[in-house]
Amino acid sequence: MKILMVTSEAVPFAKTGGLADMVSSLSISLARLDHDVKIVIPRYYSIDRSSLELLPGALGVPIGGSEQWSAVYTASLPGAAKKHPVEVYFIDHEMYFGKDGIYGIPGEPDFLDNPRRFTFFCRAAFQLCRKINWYPDVIHAHDWSSAIAPVYLKYAERVSGSLGGFEDTVSVLTIHNLGYQGIYNKDNFNYTGLGWDVFYNAGFEDWNMLNFLKAGMYSADKLNTVSPNYAEETMTQAHGFRLDGVLRYRYADYSGILNGIDTNVWNPKKDKLIPKKYSAADMTGKALAKEALQKRFDLPVDPAIPVFGMVTRLTEQKGVGELFGPGYGCIWPVCRDMNLQLVLIGTGEAWCEHEINNLSSRLPNFRALIGYSEELSHLIEAGSDFFLMPSRYEPCGLNQMYSLAYGTLPIVRRTGGLIDTVENYNEQTGSGTGFMFDELNPTAIYNTVGWAVWAWYNQRDHIEAMRLRAMKQDFSWEKSAKKYVELYEEAIQGKK
Ligand code: ADP
Ligand code: GLC
Q: Is the pTM of this model over 0.90?
């Protein structure tokens, strides 16, 4: 099968969160199953052109009633097997992508021209296929930023009178985060070059605004999200971000497929970013990672004190209000009352970064680095004993799976994909792989961290057994990649 991933993020080229990991590792796994997979992504300013190859000739993209031109670069996706390469194509347009930031910068978190940037990008994806004379069986779009690709397929590319080539192509839209829908002033619709009848028929219209994700949800042949439990949740008013009705309407075409993890990258047996590799059979590497982590964050080096880690975007989704909200959050009492150490790396909302710096300067056992570091994120996963992830909602979540693979027990809220991946501790039997709570409030987080600290000091045999159980879990992509293939096949059958 020929599959084109249309995406705004893909590791190692551009990443703000799990979407980037997911797209690249799914592509690698599909290629390994002998599918012909290509990725198309914008060439953001941060992606160095000198490491890419320029395709000869420019790409003409019909847009807003005229045509605009861009260059196209290529590279092969690192991590893909030589026998099963994945080619990545970069759409290079100075005006749209020649600036820092994927979606925005600190002073402008959502670039004003984002509706245009991603409309242009999605339209360019079709022209790219024509240029390289490669027509996919499946266009797989991800989140709001590529949600207009299924709309173009249905209303412009697959209809008679179009330039042709996509008559048999189907589309799949994966929702990684319903909280971001791409809602803009409807004037931006003129730019799509689609007729205003499509604005209404495709479901762009949203309280007189333009909603990219919603139109993609109506137009894609198949829809899915990244865990079975989140798929169920999103069809309810409580978790549907106002689009639960659309999902219920598309019930027959909507499902949840659990993300996997890249076991070449997130694997203590292979990890080159930690001091010493380790496995369930020999955990000395984990002890060394803990020591290195404590040193790195200038904390007392002591194996007896439990270390709690966090690697996160600092946004409401991740429960940061309940953790760090001034006068409200639980981190102050947690660190004051409990004999533990807490380390964090993250970036995000300005108030939160500020508050974290403030707290870490006043609490001797809380250390934080505001920033982004692949290397430190590996050290935190390996060197911590527990991983704190009290998400408000979580479509899948990769960090709790990374934690499990590294024998680091996650402390999570019972929501979304966290339910599908973590099993709660039972202090009678010692079973489970992590610690779970229901309501999102500072007291619940405080109590659950306290529960883990209690188990650490009083039930160490349980903790050790849970670690080994966690490390045995299989979150490799193989199973899930096959489910995507089934979904693609269903979409193709459905169209026939
Ligand atoms: P989300 O995509 O909602 O942020 P996930 O758990 O699915 O949540 O994925 C987050 C990904 O981003 C993980 O790979 C995590 O390691 C990475 N990440 C987030 N913040 C940072 C950071 N500050 N430094 C390094 N990696 C980070
Ligand atoms: C989103 C979600 C996260 C998921 C990731 C990859 O960013 O917030 O839960 O793991 O996408 O699918």
A: yes
